[in-house]
Amino acid sequence: LTGISRKAIQDAVLDLHTKLATKLAQQVDDYFKVSNEKIAFALASLKKPMAWDDKQQLLRSLIETHADIVEIAIVSARGQELLKVYNPDLATQKALVSRAMEAGFLSFVASGRRTLEIVPGSTSPSLIIYYPMNKIVLARVVVSLRNLGARIASERIGETGFAVLIDEKGRPLLYSDKTLSSEDREAFA
Questions:
Q1: Which DSSP letter does residue 133 get?
Q2: pLDDT tens-digit map of 62-75
């Protein structure tokens, strides 16, 4: 009877932990979905005829309502930034630069469709998204993953469980430094 009870408790705990992990995965999906919807809506609005000043104001409004957006740039088909709006709390590069050799830009040129790339940062990774606008320009949006990273780092499952967001190669992207040492990060994949 003791063995049966122990197994039933272990099954219940495992089920609870699975539900917690599923809930966190859904929150991550929702974060990316909501971010994409806000950005896509603003960029669709930019396609309407309006003055450049109005377009800049629309982009500023998007940055003000989505605190994780680092910058939004309108980029030519050759990779040169034409217009940039940035979050002064998160952005350091203010000048217009060429993105022609950036991996995300090259991937966008090859596919002609929206591309996503996660790049490591000094404090947290960032998501760089290229959106098609028309034949002569595209949009480059940089989103900081700091708030999502803080949410994942704070997640605890049981006494020893923790959450890690990994990339397509199994490398950890977002995690708690307290739970994953540098050696563990190297061996994680």
A1: -
A2: 888 888 898 999 89
Other CB atoms within 10 Å distance of the CB of residue 179: 15
Give every CB contact of residue 17 below 8 A, 6+ residues apart in sequence: 157, 158, 161
Helix, strand, or coil (residue 136): coil
Residue-level length of the chain: 189
* C-beta separation of 96 from 81 below 8 A: yes
Q: CA–CA separation, 187 vs 181, rounded Å? A: 10
Task: Tell me the two tokens of residue 80.
Answer: 């040169």
Which tokens in the block code for residue 184?
């563990």
- 74 class by beta-carbon count within 10 Å (0-12 exposed, 13-18 middle, 19+ buried): buried
Contact 161, 19 (CB under 8 A): no
Report the C-alpha gap between 180 and 185 in whole angstroms: 6
> Taking the C-alpha atoms of 6, 9, 11 and 15 in order, what is their torsion angle to the nearest 10 degrees?
-160
pLDDT in tens, 44-64: 888 888 887 887 788 888 888
